[in-house]
L-lactate dehydrogenase (Ruminiclostridium cellobioparum subsp. termitidis CT1112), 316 residues
Amino acid sequence: MKNKSINKIAIVGTGFVGSTTAYTLMLSGLISELVLIDINSRKAEGEAMDMNHGMPFVRPVKIYSGTYSDCRDADIVVITGGANQKPGETRIDLVNKNTAIFKDVVGNIVKYNTDCILLVVTNPVDILTYVTYKLSGFPKNRVIGSGTVLDSARFKYMIGEHMGVDPRNVHAYIIGEHGDTEVPTWSLASIAGVPMDAYCKDCNSCDSESFKETTYNNVKNAAYEIIDRKGATYYAVALAVRRIVEAIVRNENSILTVSSLLEGEYGLSDICLSIPSQVNSEGIARIIKVPLSEDETVLLNKSATALKQVVEGLKL
Ligand SMILES: NC(=O)c1ccc[n+]([C@@H]2O[C@H](COP(=O)([O-])OP(=O)(O)OC[C@H]3O[C@@H](n4cnc5c(N)ncnc54)[C@H](O)[C@@H]3O)[C@@H](O)[C@H]2O)c1
């Protein structure tokens, strides 16, 4: 019988995102066992070796490369395997390549574990969260996409930088698709409990409308800009995944903009996208009904429609 005190995570895909996530989890002290799985088993092996040599400097965690059978007793399986965006490629462009890979990956995981939480990071993350939900047969609360947790972090960082405020004191969410149709919910944004519009009015040091437009564009285009310069993005997303894992492992009931299946919430169904959701050891405990402005509702519907069109073209 499994020792309940063991927090075991499996990561499938040990490229830039998977290996950085592994390293971030190694440093976190949150987990006691981490298995790395990749179609390129030597890459997974090398990453495990490299991390293990730093073990005297961190709290003990058993890290090793393995195969799908090592997912057997994992609490969370993080999926980062697949193709990444090339310069100029959108996340949606990756859909066919990565859906094919997911048929293999998800099929292999569920052979050994039907009790874990599946945490999808590979892009297009909302589509692949939906694909994973369908292929796994898991209840919807246990299939989570990292969604716009990263985008919300970028949003908070950029607002904090502009305002000269610690980003941890900025409450602001990006919702919808993790991608080109994502939605900034300015109407919900606040600093120290002060709604953003009131904060801007009081500060009155810039044109707040152009600040909003620039910030949104910078958040939405962040991955393109980074990929253009260094070929991939991985540090911030790894921290976002660590944050989601933390909320699950510590049963925190944290509100995070993860992607999950909607069944009527916001009038949307049979689609995965990000909405502020309560995350605990069960996975998604609740999708929060946040009061969106009319404009934000229109944009969320557009985002859902764009995702739906892709989902309808899927051959599962
Ligand atoms: N959700 C987010 O916020 C976010 C952020 C950044 C990147 N990503 C996505 O994460 C994914 C990984 O990006 P990356 O930069 O690490 O790419 P990468 O090419 O460095 O790594 C991908 C890894 O997947 C492995 N792989 C491929 N097919 C596999 C299979 N069938 N089974 C197991 N492993 C397999 C490869 O061997 C490789 O090691 C991409 O889809 C990227 O777009 C998501």
Q: What stands out?
A: The two ends are 35 Å apart (CA to CA). The pocket of nicotinamide-adenine-dinucleotide is lined by residues 12-18, 38-40, 43, 80-85, 94, 101, 104-105, 121-123, 125, 146, 150, 178, 232-234, 237 (CB under 6 Å). The chain has a mean pLDDT of 96.
